[in-house]
Amino acid sequence: MKKLLSVLLIVVMVFAMTACGNSGDDAETYPNGTITSIVNFGAGGGSDLAARALCDKAAEILGCAITTTNVTGGSGTVGVAELAKQEADGYTIGFAPTASMALTPLFVEGADYTVDDFDYICGFGQYGYGIVVNNDCEYKTMDDVIAAIKAGGLKFGMTGYPQPFAMYELANQVGGSVEAISYPSTTDMITDVMGGFLDIAVADEASFAAYVRSGDITLLAGCCDQRWISAPDVPTLLEMGYDVQLEAYLAMVAPKGLTEDQLATLRAAFEEAAQDEKFIEIMNNANQHVSFMPGAEYDTFMHEKAVEFKDLYAKYGNN
After folding, report:
1. I need a surface site. Which of 125, 135, 160, 277 has the fewest CB within 10 A?
2. 3-state SS of 101-166?
3. Domain-by-domain residue ranges, the chain?
4. CATH code for 35-127+248-316?
């Protein structure tokens, strides 16, 4: 009887140890719970839809849920600031585009974070910018615009940075001057361009593509290294011989301090997700350029942009 009890005791102890070991392994498996994604712009906008589409596919690959929380305000800085405050446990990530990370904090009060406060998962798309005009205005070609810049004082519309840098750099290269008119919203700027109250503006493709396609507004030049999806026949300023290029990525990041394994897992999942046909279709339909940049490369890119934007803002920020 004593021998039987001893055997049973040993069996129970072995089972308990095995169970505890399995529980520990499960606890160390990442991810084993829901991940929250903070998006720094409102629900339903182009950036929000792009981030959600990418996270949906990444969640499928990771085998967990990724829920989205929209934290708006401060020209996109409130959501990024909130993300920076979160625990670096791998269960909070966020959408943080280039300008919100490295440019907007230069002039928005309360944006007390830097590019050093984050781990970079990936860049997954590029914002498309371009120079658009009212159809009935005097500017029919970029040559007309350049002539006006050289004459001095050309006024153009913009809704935020880095948009005005394109015109400031163009004026610097051709010898002339421009003046920015800041609009509180893209809708307001579209209304004024279509109504003839504003002749020219630096616009983002996602917002203006439908009006360019319909012929209600004319695109004279792209301001990035890629032509607009919605106007593939219109060349970029680079193609026209002007050294002007606005680079701003859609990106996913996390609070600084993830383990190497956690960061590697997220990077691999999001890189695979960015190749998904459904995600690419959603991006194209939203007139967003799919342009993937791996996390380590995007980390370097962001630190370089932080320096570049600081210099550009110091040069043009008071114009």
Report:
1. 277
2. HHCHHHCCCCCCCCHHHEEEEEEEEECCEEEEEECCCCCCCHHHHHHHHHHCCEEEEECCCCHHHH
3. 35-127+248-316, 129-222
4. 3.40.190.150
Q: Answer whether 193's CB lies under 8 Å from 157's CB.
A: yes
Place of tokens 């203006």: 208
Contact assessment for residue 86 and residue 28, using Cβ atoms and an 8 Å cutoff: no
**pTM summary value:** 0.84
Per-residue pLDDT 10s for the chain (319 aa) are 444 344 333 333 333 333 333 333 344 699 999 999 999 988 888 888 899 999 999 999 999 999 999 999 988 899 999 999 999 999 999 999 999 999 989 988 888 999 999 999 999 999 899 999 999 999 999 999 999 999 998 999 998 889 999 999 999 999 999 999 999 888 999 999 999 999 999 999 988 999 999 999 999 999 998 899 889 999 999 999 999 999 899 999 999 999 999 999 999 999 999 999 999 998 988 888 899 999 999 999 999 999 999 999 998 876 6
Angle at 119 between CA 312 and CA 224, to 5 degrees: 40
* 129-222 CATH choice from 1.10.150.80, 3.50.50.60, 3.40.190.10, 3.20.20.60: 3.40.190.10
163-174 helix and 142-151 helix, angle to the nearest 10 degrees: 70
